[in-house]
Write a structure and sequence with these properties.
504 residues, mainly alpha, two-stranded antiparallel sheet, globular, membrane, ammonia transport, Ammonium_transpt_CS, Ammonium/urea_transptr
């Protein structure tokens, strides 16, 4: 008959030390050392997880540099300073308003299924469930959503409108959505203890809907209410390409976004020091493995979307276009973001392939409807984000869903993986709710700004360029020799024999 296990108490250890003169003192010493070492392991675990999350936050914040370069390269040179300034404001205004209001709406305690409570929700920091890196990480997501929207309304929007919408989006609109689907008691969250939506909740792991659809739908309404840029469509409706001034910046920005996505998707685990084994130390398989798998699925979806776009656009347009490939790559990333942690790598290839055609299809539809989005942000983030939500409902793997979200062993998973329709139904609800919420809030805001004449710049300023008319001059210095060699400029003002030039 097996002996009962020993506990860390002097009464259990004394018999083992009966030959020792001071057995009690020796036993107490051993127990104290054991508890000290155990406590240090606990401290180390917190340190590892918080460092991991903090490093992930740095990666996601680096995506702002990618956004800035991508946006700058995608607009004409005469609007470079304007679009760069909007990226700075997205981060700065977003930081303040997310601190004052947004984080509380998203994760404030106590909360309910619809909205968090208590402004200045960071007042209870640090605690076991929330520490400062968590706030920083969530802030980087909020400003990412705002950055998406800025691309849709580029080259024709008053700067004051950027200030207003960015603050509103990061302080209220985005946080409410993140509470619904990411807070532990949000009505659509998969982490709820009970009353899960369709017994599954919504698995939007890193935000195909929460981040990308929110930013994309907000940008859609802004661009629709503003209308297309001057010269974007001919009188008969034929689309005219208004090419950005630097493909180099577009490519560099895309690579920076790619790099940052390894914090966006794998970082959404929030913790890495967690074993999936039955006992500590019994398995080499744990959350660190899931983090690695998530990085792999992210990579494969983006790569597949890029190659599909490369050959697809070659067949459609007859040439190889680097900016289209960059957008296709980002569309694959936006799509896989929601299900990156719960799908197999082979499924990520399907995700990226379909995402590329979704983006190309929405771009064709945009031209037909005379919809103008300089960075294809609504099509890319809104359209591909919606596909990513549907994709997860189809391909989520049973084992991965159980490992990451726990709960009932028969929890719903992907329809095409044999898991039934419940997860997919929850995801359809998410799409409808996000479209409705963002349309009501951001659509109304843009409409009010339009009526107050605070949204679109005057046509003469748009033609001349926003840099010389609103920001004190051009972003680049042009010499007379450069002008003679083909830099197209026009005179936009003259004072004391000084000629101001706007780049066309």
């Amino acid at each position: 008959m097996a002996s009962p296990p020993l506990s860390c108490s002097a009464s259990d250890l004394i018999p083992l030390l009966s030959s020792t003169a001071n057995a009690t003192a020796a036993a107490e010493f051993i127990c104290t050392r054991f508890e000290t070492i155990s406590g240090k392991f606990t401290d180390a675990s917190y340190a590892i997880d918080n460092t991991y999350l903090l490093f992930s936050a740095y990666l996601v914040f680096a995506m702002q540099l990618g956004f800035a370069m991508l946006c700058a390269g995608s607009v004409r040179a005469k609007n470079t300073m304007n679009i760069m300034l909007t990226n700075v404001i997205d981060a700065a205004a977003g930081g303040l308003f997310y601190y004052l209001f947004g984080f509380a709406f998203a994760y404030g305690s106590p909360s309910n299924p619809f909205i968090g409570k208590h402004f200045f929700a960071m007042s209870g920091f640090p605690k076991a469930t929330f520490d400062y890196p968590y706030f920083l990480y969530q802030w980087t997501f909020a400003i990412a959503a705002a950055g998406i929207t800025s691309g849709s309304i580029a080259e024709r929007t008053q700067f004051v409108a950027y200030l207003i919408y960015s603050s509103f989006l990061t302080g209220l609109v985005y946080p409410i959505v993140s509470h619904w689907f990411w807070s532990s008691d949000g009505w659509g969250s998969p982490a709820r203890a009970e009353n899960l939506l369709f017994q599954s909740g919504v698995i939007d792991f890193a935000g195909s809907g929460v981040v990308h659809m929110v930013g994309g739908i907000a940008g859609l309404w802004g661009a629709l209410i503003e209308g297309p840029r001057i010269g974007r469509f001919e009188n008969r409706g034929k689309p005219v390409t208004l090419r950005g001034h630097s493909a180099t910046l577009v490519v560099l920005g895309t690579f920076l976004l790619w790099f940052g996505w390894y914090g966006f998707n794998p970082g959404s685990f929030a913790i890495i020091n967690k074993s999936y084994g039955s006992a500590p130390g019994s398995s080499f398989y744990g959350q660190w493995s899931a983090v690695g798998r998530t990085a792999v699925t992210t990579t494969l979806a983006g790569c597949t979307a890029a190659l599909t776009t490369l050959f697809g656009k070659r067949l459609i347009d007859g040439y190889w276009n680097v900016t289209d490939v960059c957008n296709g790559l980002l569309g694959g990333f936006a799509a896989i973001t929601g299900g990156c942690s719960v799908v197999e790598p082979w499924a990520a290839v399907i995700c990226g392939f379909v995402a590329a055609w979704v983006l190309m299809g929405f771009n064709k539809l945009a031209d037909k409807l005379k919809y103008d989005d300089p960075l294809e942000a609504a099509q890319l983030h809104g359209g591909c984000g919606a596909w990513g939500i549907i994709f997860t409902g189809l391909f989520a793997d049973k084992t991965y869903v159980s490992e990451i979200f726990g709960g009932e062993p028969n929890r719903p998973y992907g329809l095409l993986m044999g898991g039934g329709w419940r997860l997919l139904a929850a995801h359809v609800v998410q799409i409808v709710v996000i479209v409705g919420w963002v349309s009501v809030t951001m659509g109304t805001l843009f409409f009010v700004l339009h009526k107050l004449e605070l949204l679109r710049i005057p046509s003469e300023d748009e033609i001349a360029g926003m840099d010389p008319t609103s920001h004190g001059g051009l972003a680049y210095m042009y010499t007379e020799e450069e002008i003679k060699n083909g830099i197209m400029v026009r005179e936009v003002g003259r004072e004391n024999d000084h000629v101001e030039l706007g780049v066309l």
